[in-house]
Design goal:
Elements: H1 4-15, H2 21-64, H3 70-87, E1 96-103, E2 106-114, E3 132-140
Antiparallel strand pairs: 1-2, 2-3
């Protein structure tokens, strides 16, 4: 009976030893916390890009309505997009495709960007929305 008791005492001392608990808890929870952090950063960058693209399309549509001809409105809209992209940090001017269409007295500016080049969106730790963001703005052309 005495041979069993020293082994049990050692087992009891191991079960009551709390050193290293924080390390084990951190090792178990850190992947979840890192995934949450990457998700917040990735979606934040996605929403920033989408919002900036929408604002650029709105500005371009507003700039286009003062043109006298369709060609002038297209030039004004594209110039507005190019000028806005110089201040925007979400995409380079060559990465954003723009189309300007006019029908029924309305100018429609459509901008799209492929976000696969953005670092946080291609990390792959969390599922992300469609990588191509497309935003559109419509403005009515005033008759003079």
């Amino acid at each position: 009976m005495r041979a069993i008791l020293p082994g049990m005492a050692r087992l009891h001392s191991l079960s009551s030893d709390r050193r290293g608990n924080a390390l084990i808890e951190f090792a178990l929870l850190s992947p979840i916390l890192i995934a949450l952090l990457m998700g917040m950063l990735g979606y934040g960058q996605y929403f920033l890009t989408a919002h900036t693209l929408q604002q650029l399309a709105n500005d371009a549509a507003r700039a286009a309505i003062v043109g006298q001809t369709q060609a002038e409105r297209t030039t004004l809209a594209r110039a507005s997009v190019a000028q806005g992209l110089t201040n925007a940090a979400v995409a380079k001017p060559g990465e954003v495709s723009s189309t300007v269409a006019e029908a029924d007295g309305r100018v429609t500016v459509t901008l799209s960007v492929d976000t696969r080049a953005l670092a946080l969106l291609r990390a792959g730790l969390v599922p992300m929305p469609d990588p191509v963001i497309e935003r559109r703005a419509v403005a009515e052309v005033a008759d003079f």
